[in-house]
């Protein structure tokens, strides 16, 4: 029977573990570890009954009446044999120098850990609780309380004697007590009371909610959050009480303080202990569950929950099931929760185990993320908190992340993460590359390889290039373009490409890539030859960049065939490197390309290629007739006879007309227009350009028997030749199209000429009058005569040195000045005087404007 129960318990524990794993996707807020060392040794022979925590040490009481002082790691530092029976409670003051102990056989001891003062007393009933004054070390605070059937306050009098007083009795055993500042809170069978030690008044009574629970099996848990906030946990109920000062007007016979319940809510399980955590609560719960198989109730693992209190309910932040030793046999009263306020450490005490819970730090957070394979989040957390983490290194987390991605088959993501994680560590880069090679994923890591700082061994880059060359020509070409040529041994890769070209000699991708490799190797000749073969657009850039003009002198035809426009521009821009003569000679067998080159040369400069103008006549005639006439007009070095011969041979009428007119044979040109082109408008236009009366006469004679030509002449001749000359020669009875309109136009042109003449006459008259007035104003102005002026005849100063002497000066409008005696005497026929200088130079008469006398 016992074995069956044991097996059932084990299966329950396993099922609880499984359910806990299912719920563990949410990260716990606390981490746990057993308090070992001396504690393990103690609990092998004894059982823990109570415990209290100080910032510097721990005090553990056992069922065999021992009290052990432990350091934070659980090592025994001191041992006290207090009683042969169970220690019910241990109390320490805030200084940690005084300790109070009570036991099941009624013994009470209060003594100094580092002094000789002691209090020993044995009562006739079990003493369940003890609490020493928080400031017991002070002489004015030598007080403590004990509780069994009644609550007693012990105080040391001035004679060093202890006197006791009853604070409360008659409501059953006192089972819990907490002292904070001037307030003492305790719980008995009926509820919780608070006593003000200063005013010696009990200020509240908080009744127990669930009176059906046995108070000895489900004891009350008390906890002071601060000096005025008490947290009560009893059964499944939690109450948060706030001690407040009563207003003076409300005092009367009431205590000066009162208690207000600020929050009250129910929990899912029975409460075994409470502790504050900032504005939240840590709750130790006793759990009972029903087996699905036997439908029997059993004790499950206790839970440690962090909850956020609200006014009438609470919010669960985290919940952890604790696997403490012997939890199957424990009851609610067997668990205790103690805490260290300074370090947020929580001690879960059970008869056979002590577990320490502490807030998780960043290292713990990273541990959990790694355990859940959330590597990216772990890496981010480590980077954010790299100054605070102690057990982890960013690099180690990153490498684990890369390995995880590789295992999942996410090779591209793993390769991309290498950039950030491996950074400038060349050795790690090379290690990862070989690892990717082993799994056949070199292509995945190739885009992310470092290319500058750091630079890996050439073998690494060559290995990846060979991988692409075997399976992906385009990818190989991309790497060659993107990677600097000094990353790998260029000659090795060139040879590998050439080997592949033996199998596929026309592969354009490989040929282009080989040309790029030749360029990196400064073997520009071979690169240029490949580019020309491929007719690649970069050929011109290659020539310019590396000054390869000496290499293309025999490849001009190839360049022109590829892109004649770019080739011609390049050749013309670099005449100093490849002469015009050399280009023309190379293109001798390709006259159409020769024409393109010479045409563009002529457009740039009409004189540079003058020696080739005669050749260009034939080229234009053969390949580009529309530009022949503009060429003949713009060229001053073109032999006209040769041009005329070619144009006549090819029957180019317009060009022949132009050449005849340019050679002075205007009549023949006009005749050709009339006879060959039959274009009266062109003939009239030609006559207008030449402005020769004989041409107009020839045009009239030719047109006189052709009515359409007469119409054209009548419409256009009016402004150049007198229309009467044409009209008189028209035969009577000849029918001329649109004659009336033509005559009307002649009259309109005549009227227009008359109007223009009259308008011009008015303008001339107005301008003449304006200028005359301006001249008159100018001549009316005075002329400055001073010592610097000279006589234009005798060249002596115009003014005498002796101002007292009489003198006479004549100044003309042209500003020339003479002594009067230096001018010739005017004749009777022409009394006006004129400036001899201006008259001699035909500048006009320049009559005198001023005569000065003294």
UniProtKB/TrEMBL annotation:
Q: State the CHCR repeat positions.
A: 568-712
| Domain RING-type, residue spans | 791-839
What Gene3D superfamilies is this protein classified in? Answer: Tetratricopeptide repeat domain, YVTN repeat-like/Quinoprotein amine dehydrogenase
As one GO molecular function, the record gives: zinc ion binding
Q: Where in the cell is it found?
A: Cytoplasm, Cytosol; Early endosome membrane; Endosome membrane; Late endosome membrane
Membrane-topology annotation of the record: Peripheral membrane protein
Q: Where along the chain is composition biased (Acidic residues)?
A: 1-26
Q: Which GO terms describe its cellular component?
A: AP-3 adaptor complex; clathrin complex; clathrin-coated vesicle; cytosol; early endosome membrane; Golgi apparatus; late endosome membrane; lysosomal HOPS complex
Q: Which GO terms describe its biological process?
A: cellular response to starvation; endosomal vesicle fusion; endosome to lysosome transport; late endosome to lysosome transport; macroautophagy; protein targeting to vacuole
* Entry similarity comment: Belongs to the VPS41 family.
| Name of the featured protein | Vacuolar protein sorting-associated protein 41 homolog
């Amino acid at each position: 029977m016992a074995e069956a129960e044991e097996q059932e318990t084990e299966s329950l524990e396993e099922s609880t573990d499984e359910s806990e794993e299912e719920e563990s996707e949410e990260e716990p807020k606390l981490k746990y570890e057993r308090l070992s060392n001396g504690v393990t040794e103690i609990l092998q022979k004894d059982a823990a009954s109570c415990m209290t925590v100080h910032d510097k040490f721990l005090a553990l009481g056992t069922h065999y009446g021992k009290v052990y002082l432990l350091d934070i790691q659980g090592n025994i530092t001191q041992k006290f044999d207090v009683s042969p029976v169970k220690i019910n409670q241990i109390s320490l003051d805030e200084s940690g120098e005084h300790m109070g102990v009570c036991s099941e056989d009624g013994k009470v001891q209060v003594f100094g850990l580092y002094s000789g003062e002691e209090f020993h007393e044995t009562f006739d009933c079990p003493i369940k609780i003890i609490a020493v004054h928080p400031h017991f070390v002070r002489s004015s605070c030598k007080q403590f309380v004990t509780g069994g059937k009644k609550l007693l306050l012990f105080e040391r009098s001035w004679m060093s004697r202890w006197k006791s007083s009853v604070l409360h009795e008659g409501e059953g055993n006192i089972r819990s007590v907490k002292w904070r500042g001037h307030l003492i809170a305790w719980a008995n069978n009926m509820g919780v009371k608070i006593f003000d030690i200063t005013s010696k008044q009990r200020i509240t009574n908080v009744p127990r909610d669930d009176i059906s629970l046995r108070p000895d099996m489900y004891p009350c848990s008390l906890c002071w959050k601060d000096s005025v906030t008490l947290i009560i946990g009893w059964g499944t109920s939690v109450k948060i009480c706030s001690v407040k000062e009563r207003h003076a007007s409300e005092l009367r016979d009431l205590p000066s303080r009162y208690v207000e319940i600020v929050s009250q809510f129910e929990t899912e399980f029975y409460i075994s202990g409470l502790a504050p955590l900032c504005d939240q609560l840590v709750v130790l719960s006793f759990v009972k569950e029903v087996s699905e198989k036997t439908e029997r109730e059993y004790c499950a693992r206790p839970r440690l929950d962090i909850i956020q209190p609200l006014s009438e309910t609470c919010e669960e932040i985290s919940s952890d099931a604790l696997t403490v030793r012997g939890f199957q046999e424990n009851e609610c009263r067997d668990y205790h929760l103690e805490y260290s306020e300074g370090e947020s450490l929580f001690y879960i005490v059970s008869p056979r185990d002590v577990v320490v819970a502490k807030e998780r730090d960043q290292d713990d957070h990273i541990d959990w993320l790694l355990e859940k394979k959330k590597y990216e989040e772990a890496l981010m957390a480590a980077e954010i908190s790299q100054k605070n983490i102690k057990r982890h290194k960013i690099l180690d987390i990153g490498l684990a992340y890369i390995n995880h991605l590789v295992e999942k088959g996410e090779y591209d993501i793993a390769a991309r993460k290498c950039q950030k994680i491996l950074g400038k560590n060349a050795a790690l880069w090379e290690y990862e590359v070989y690892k990717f090679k082993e799994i056949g994923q070199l292509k995945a890591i190739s885009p992310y390889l470092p290319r500058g700082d750091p630079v890996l061994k050439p073998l690494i880059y060559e290995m990846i290039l060979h991988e692409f060359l075997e399976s992906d020509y385009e990818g190989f070409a991309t790497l060659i373009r993107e990677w600097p040529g000094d990353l790998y041994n260029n000659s090795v890769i060139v040879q590998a490409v050439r080997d592949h070209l033996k199998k596929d000699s026309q592969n354009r991708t490989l040929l282009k890539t080989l040309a790029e490799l030749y360029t990196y190797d400064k073997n520009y000749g071979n690169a240029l030859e490949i580019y020309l073969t491929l007719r690649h657009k970069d050929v011109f850039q290659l020539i310019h960049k590396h000054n390869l003009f000496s290499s293309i002198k025999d490849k001009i035809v190839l360049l022109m065939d590829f892109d004649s426009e770019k080739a011609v521009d390049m050749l013309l821009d670099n005449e100093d490197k490849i002469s015009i003569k050399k280009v023309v000679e190379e293109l001798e067998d390709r006259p159409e390309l020769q024409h393109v080159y010479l045409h563009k040369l002529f457009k740039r400069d009409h004189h540079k290629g003058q020696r080739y103008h005669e050749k260009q006549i034939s080229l234009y005639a053969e390949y580009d007739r529309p530009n022949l006439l503009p060429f003949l007009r713009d060229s001053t070095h073109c032999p006209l006879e040769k041009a005329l011969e070619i144009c006549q041979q090819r029957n180019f009428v317009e060009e022949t007309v132009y050449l005849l007119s340019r050679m002075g044979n205007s009549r023949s040109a006009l005749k050709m227009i009339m006879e060959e082109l039959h274009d009266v408008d062109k003939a009239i236009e030609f006559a207008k350009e030449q402005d020769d009366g004989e041409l107009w006469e020839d045009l009239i004679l030719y047109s006189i028997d052709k009515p359409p030509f007469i119409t054209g002449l009548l419409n256009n001749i009016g402004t150049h030749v007198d229309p009467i000359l044409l009209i008189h020669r028209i035969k009577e009875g000849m029918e001329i199209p649109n004659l009336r309109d033509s005559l009307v136009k002649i009259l309109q042109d005549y009227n227009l000429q008359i109007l223009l003449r009259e308008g011009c006459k008015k303008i001339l008259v107005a301008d003449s009058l304006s200028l005359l007035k301006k001249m008159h104003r100018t001549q009316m102005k005075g002329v400055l005569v001073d010592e610097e002026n000279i006589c234009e005849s005798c060249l002596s100063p115009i003014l005498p040195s002796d101002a007292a002497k009489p003198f006479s000066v004549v100044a003309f409008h042209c500003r020339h000045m003479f002594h009067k005696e230096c001018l010739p005497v005017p004749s009777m026929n022409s009394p006006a005087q004129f400036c001899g200088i201006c008259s001699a130079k035909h500048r006009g008469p320049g009559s005198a404007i001023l005569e000065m006398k003294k």
